[in-house]
Amino acid sequence: MEVHRTEVKTQVDNVAKRVERVERDVEYLENKTPNQAHIEVEEALMEQQMKDAQKKKVKITLGTDCNIALTGVKSLMIVKKAGDVYGSWLQDPTKGSAKIYFFSGNKNNTVLEFKSLKTFTEGRHAQAHPIQLPFPWQGTGHVVYNGFLYYHRADTPNQILKVHLLNRTVADSMLLAGVGRLPTYALTTHTFLDLAVEELGLWVIYSDPEFGGNLVITKLDKSSLAVEHTWDTTCTSRDAESALMICGTLYVVYNSCCGGRSSIQCLYDIHDPIHSEESPVLFFPKRYTNHYSMHYHPKDKQLYACVTGLYW
Predict the structure, then answer these.
(1) Some GO term, biological process aspect, for this entry: which one (predicted)?
(2) Boundary residue ending a domain (61, 92, 110)
């Protein structure tokens, strides 16, 4: 009987945490400062809903005109083959930046900087500029933004570093609570923090065992690394291999443990955290083994990914 009571108490505590987080989500969206948020109330619909259920529909835009949505992946083009199974390649979305940053493996302290996409695709490593980092990185969830590299410091459960790529010094760091106990994606076991940059800013995606292993997304201030807000999503990390953030929406990519045709099967929109419409499954056009990294580039609206040493 005592064991049963303990299990019930644990379940009640978990439900209470979920309710508290949903309440924070609503409060965050409703209390953004006026210069960063615009609330548009559809009066006719509100009037009708008030008659029916005393509800209202609110459209919220967070600071940036962001109306991009992923509706499909038309084609994949392999731009490079490398010896390492794991890895990632990135481009700084800051205006005027054409450099490519190449991360080989899932744990290292050196990043290769290429002057352009052409230099990267031609495979001229001798022309690459090696950047020695002050601390090694772990996983494949790194991002480069405005001349800074954001990454998970190796051999730590939850430390995020912000390193200035020009002088190779640590500009800032933070410890993200609740991270490091589970891999972000069940099929990409070396990545415990997956950082993302998109139209609304800097994000961290991770899996939290306290919420059933579902994915959690946290918005970070890109300057100070301070946590702005956290959302507990409805997307499971089970059978997930990667994910994308686009205009405040999380797109989770799933596959099988043996590798197959990847597909996006779960979406979570921070603008509508309570009522989210069902969306069709989006399949990738080719069948590969699992993706070990995937990033969305907000400037050119392209996806950058790694599939067992193939980079597209």
Answers:
(1) signal transduction
(2) 61
